[in-house]
Amino acid sequence: MNPIESPEKNKVEKGTLYLVGTPIGNLSDLSDRAKKVLSEVDFVAAEDTRNSGKLLAAFGIKKPMVSYFEHNKREHGEQIAARLLAGESCALVTDAGMPAISDPGEDIVRLCAERGIPVSVIPGPCAAVSALALSGLPTSRFVFEGFLSTASAERKASLAMLKNETRTAILYEAPHKLLATLRDLYEALGDRKISLCRELTKLNEEVVRTTLSEAVTRYENGDVRGEFVLILAGASEEECRKSAFWADWDVPAHVAYYVDTGMTKNEAVKAVARDRGTAKSEIYNQVMKK
Ligand code: SAM
Hints:
Layout: E1 17-20, H1 32-40, E2 43-46, H2 49-58, E3 65-67, H3 73-85, E4 90-93, H4 106-115, E5 119-122, H5 127-135, E6 142-147, H6 152-163, E7 168-173, H7 178-189, E8 193-198, E9 206-211, H8 212-220, E10 228-232, H9 237-242, H10 251-260, H11 265-276, H12 280-289
Parallel strand pairs: 1-4, 1-5, 2-3, 2-4, 6-7
Antiparallel strand pairs: 7-10, 8-9, 8-10
The structure holds S-adenosylmethionine.
């Protein structure tokens, strides 16, 4: 429905947690509704009370604040939930963008859901979706990877998943880790297309639409500054086939594999045809030859 025609949810309710999206670099992106909710709730829970205090001050909003971040989220989450259950209303904000997307928030939303506490959203800027829209890469199907882990085994597992991922992938990265991440992506995935979206909504906003090899060269030779979202093209069907579990098998071995899993021969032929992007009749011919 056109938003002009739909009834709005505007009243700040007691006992409700509000997830409030805040600017990712441009103060003008704080919505009127966000300002209203921040002004009317009983208290604000913030990832960094100093940062968010400055944001509120810029709009002349004074509110009691509590901190809620990675290392106190269990204890403070309980305290916030108790205050909500006692009837207070709370706005959750993070350093930038949409709370709960690669920053604290996910856990308190789960806690509220478990305790029957209403949670409402005040949508605002999100670096991931803004970058995706700007990337020039396919947007109809995408996955959000967030920050790649720095732990070796987890990082390798994520890279292996991305190798066969046909959807466009969204990654966050800190500037000092960008080059290492680009090198790892290039090594694991080959020369995929990538759009590097930097400093979105800020004075130096920039989108570099390039390939992984060129991105490595570019950032090896230059300063890496600012905040980045990486939008990575998905694998082509051809790439997926090359790295599939059956890539080294001939057609009869591939059919035999599915038959061993309990499929009928007909079902197995169909599955193999789908895997290989070939006609069923061609698979039949090759199985019959043997
Ligand atoms: N919850 C936030 C969101 O959804 O927009 C993201 C928080 S996450 C801790 C921070 C990461 O978001 C940064 O490391 C960067 O990858 C990305 N980011 C945030 N602001 C950005 C901006 N203005 N331009 C590009 N990337 C940004």
